[in-house]
Specification:
Elements: H1 3-28, E1 33-37, E2 45-51, E3 55-62, E4 79-84, H2 95-100, H3 103-132, H4 139-169, E5 175-180, H5 182-205
Antiparallel strand pairs: 1-2, 1-5, 2-3, 3-4
Helix pairs in contact: 1-3, 1-5, 3-4, 4-5
Length: 224
């Protein structure tokens, strides 16, 4: 591999590394979406919530703004209570989840995110072996694993988005307003970096194509 190409590969792997960090942050944190109920009586306590792939947190907030009809913002001080979703930890009490969210959506989003982490581990293993053993061809499976990881993150994001939409549209919930928070933004950024970074790494790791009609692929630089 030429020095210029090696530099491009390292720059691409750095972008992928940033995507890996963002994916890890998104998976382990619980600020994917923030939900707010309608506030009818001001100077009273309302309960807003934010959740991730594994648990949901509620916060009791005292509302003083008479013009605001929703509970929040979530950054206001208040009593916070977090619990893991009941289907992940049967011993925990999370009645709010049973009423306001979709169990199937939550399990699907979490499972797909775990698959994404598995692809990331396999891709990183191949990338490390390619540098330690000087085997450039291992960058090709690494790039595919990273691209698959990005696609899994995208599917997890879409499943979560559909879950939130169904919560808001349901007549059995108290939520009237929502917005996506920083964990959701980390997941979206991770998808872009992992997917595009994986495709770029695949293109960089492919052997050089013939530039002249009389040149064949056999004339390309040998791979170690």
């Amino acid at each position: 591999m030429s020095q210029t190409k090696a530099l491009k590969v390292r720059a691409t792997l750095f972008c992928i590394l940033v995507g890996i960090v963002l994916a890890m942050v998104a998976v382990v944190t619980d600020h994917w979406a923030v939900l707010s109920p309608e506030v009818k009586n001001h100077n009273a306590t309302c309960e807003a919530a934010h959740f991730g792939l594994w648990r949901i947190c509620t916060k009791r907030i005292v509302m003083t703004d008479s013009t605001d009809k929703t509970c929040g913002p979530i950054t206001l001080p208040g009593e916070k209570n977090c619990s893991y979703f009941r289907h992940f930890n049967p011993g925990e009490t999370s009645e709010i989840f049973e009423v306001t969210t979709q169990k199937e959506y939550s399990i699907s989003a979490a499972a797909i995110a775990v698959f994404s982490l598995g692809f990331i581990i396999m891709g990183t293993t191949c990338a490390l072996l390619s540098f330690r053993k000087k085997r450039d061809y291992l960058l090709r499976p690494a790039s595919m694993f990273y691209a698959f990881a990005g696609l899994c993150i995208f599917v997890s994001v879409e499943v979560t988005r559909q879950s939130v939409k169904r919560m808001i549209d349901s007549e059995h919930t108290v939520w009237i307003e929502y917005y996506y928070s920083w964990s959701f933004a980390c997941a979206c950024s991770a998808f872009v970096l992992l997917f595009l970074g994986g495709l770029a790494l695949l293109l960089l790791s492919l052997p050089r194509m013939p530039q002249n009609p009389w040149e064949s692929c056999m004339d390309a630089e040998p791979e170690h």
